[in-house]
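pls design
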């Protein structure tokens, strides 16, 4: 009887591993998009935020005790429709009525920001599409989202560059190209003029959420857009819990490789039996 030679055995083992190991992340990325969550309601207490499958029976992401002005990191999700709910922090009743709920459609290769925006009596959710395009040269891109409830419209400049003129509540401006480095951001609403300094890295895109400070004056909550999304933005706020666990896919890969190596050992045992070679 013929024996199975080592080169053939190795080739079969490689084939087993190739079948067991999942496709490369780059291939999967074409079917995925990104989403992040923002709490932009000044008179809504801290909330717990969940993002679930549309049926609501599988919670994919949970943030706990999220305060006003907080913006989460991106989560990478397969394309599809997802349900969002915000309930008061400390509320342990799974059937508690959310202070706000909504849904978001995730498309492949896109990034979305889902924000709870407005005063508590008129709280709503808005979805903003974020910029994933490459920023060339030594520049950066920036836009504002006007979420101030004490000002009906806001003008914004970054250095000498106009970012927004008369941005109404709930509006997102177009992205403006600005030089990378430290930039002075001026926010103007009537007689209220506030200036903050921001640093923009070359090749990055940013959203500046215009909100109100404790005195009712304008300020911003900055968030990184494209550079974050192209660097596998999986996670949550430091104050929140959970996030999509990348460890699950790594564990699956290790198990698959282990199974393949187990198949390698099985083939070796078969070869020894067929050749009449016995080892202790």
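designed seq:
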């Amino acid at each position: 009887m013929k024996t199975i030679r080592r080169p053939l055995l190795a080739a079969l083992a490689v084939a087993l591993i190739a079948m067991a190991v999942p496709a490369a992340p780059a291939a999967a990325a074409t079917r995925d998009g990104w989403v992040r969550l923002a709490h932009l309601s000044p008179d809504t207490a801290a909330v717990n935020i969940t993002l679930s499958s549309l049926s609501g029976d599988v919670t994919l992401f949970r943030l706990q005790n999220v305060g006003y002005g907080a913006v989460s990191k991106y989560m990478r999700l397969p394309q599809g429709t997802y349900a969002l709910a915000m309930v008061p922090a400390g509320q342990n009743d799974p059937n508690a009525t959310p202070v706000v709920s909504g849904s978001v459609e995730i498309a492949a290769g896109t990034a979305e920001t889902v924000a709870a925006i407005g005063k508590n009596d008129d709280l709503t959710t808005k979805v903003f599409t974020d910029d994933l395009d490459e920023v060339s040269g030594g520049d950066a891109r920036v836009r504002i989202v006007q979420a101030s409830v004490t000002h009906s419209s806001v003008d914004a400049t970054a250095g000498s560059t106009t970012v927004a003129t008369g941005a109404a509540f709930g509006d997102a401006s177009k992205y403006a190209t600005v030089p990378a480095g430290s930039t002075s951001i001026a926010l103007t609403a009537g007689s209220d003029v506030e200036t903050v300094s921001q640093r923009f890295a070359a090749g990055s895109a940013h959203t500046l959420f215009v909100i109100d400070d404790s005195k009712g004056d304008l300020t911003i909550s900055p968030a990184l857009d494209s550079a974050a999304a192209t660097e596998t933005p999986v996670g949550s706020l430091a104050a929140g819990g959970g996030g999509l666990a990348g460890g699950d896919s790594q564990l699956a890969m290790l198990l698959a490789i282990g199974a393949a190596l187990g198949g390698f050992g099985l083939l070796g045992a078969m070869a020894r039996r067929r050749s009449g070679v016995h080892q202790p």
